[in-house]
Amino acid sequence: MTTLSSDGQARAIPWGALGPWLALLATCFFFTTQSDRFLTGENLSLVLQQVMVVGVLAIGQTLIILTAGIDLSCGMVMSLAGIVMTKFAVDYGFDPYLAIACGLGTATMFGLINGLLITKVKLPSFIVTLGTLNIAFAITQIYSESQTVRDLPVEMTALGNTFSIGSTEVGYGTIVMIVLYVVAWYMLRDSSPGRHVYAVGNNPEAARLTGISVDRVLLGVYALAGLFYGIAALLSVARTGVGDPQAGQTENLDAITAVVLGGTSLFGGRGILLGSLVGAVIVGVFRNGLTLMGVASVYQTLITGVLVILAVAADQMSRKGAR
Fold it and tell me: Domains in the chain, please, with CATH?
């Protein structure tokens, strides 16, 4: 008997796997014709460093969207986690690694709270995460007194450093992002918990009847997503060299954009995790290429919005075609 998860993955392959890659190749080809600085190792490495934070956020967002949920709080949870780890290290003198663990724990706790409200109180994910977005933002501002945390220990900024491959500088944070994607992709594809995520997103009632604990899957997904937001916070701190209470205010929408452009269905149950990485890179390439062309940032935002609408429209048409 064909399982729900297998169906979900099989239907996702044509658009979820191929479409984002073709879009990325077409985008790169276009900007290569517009600027001779685009297709250089230095510039492409810069693009990856610029998208690594949103890329890691998109891992957690993908897990949630695969279960037919959405998380509007991811950017502000990331910001709070960054403030917690930096203040614990700088203001309270915690060991840097312990401070980082506290930040990761804070983000995971917020993810768990989201999951509990959704599974136990039966609130919609949109409402829950809209609420926790505002809660995380307020706590961040109050706790940090809206002040940037500086003079961080080197352990917290290490992932912002680079190493050389030929004449190209590659960021350690970029490598971390890619490793996280490979591990998460493998777990989703080849493990029972990963197949359960697809099954719950495809049809939670049918998943329950097959013996899957839907609430347990959702709790695990939201808590794990919170952990990824904490890792994104560490990458953000490492890249900027400060704990910034203003960080994360647009990253939630950027992460959702990356997931949608990567071919994951907003209706749940369909999508391939690596597509979210491609989606994040597409957004980064567009912004980088338009900057090289001298296009104002407001038009970059406009084009990103158009891309999201086109991606959702394509998903909607593919669903209708499958019926």
Answer: 4-315 (1.10.3470)
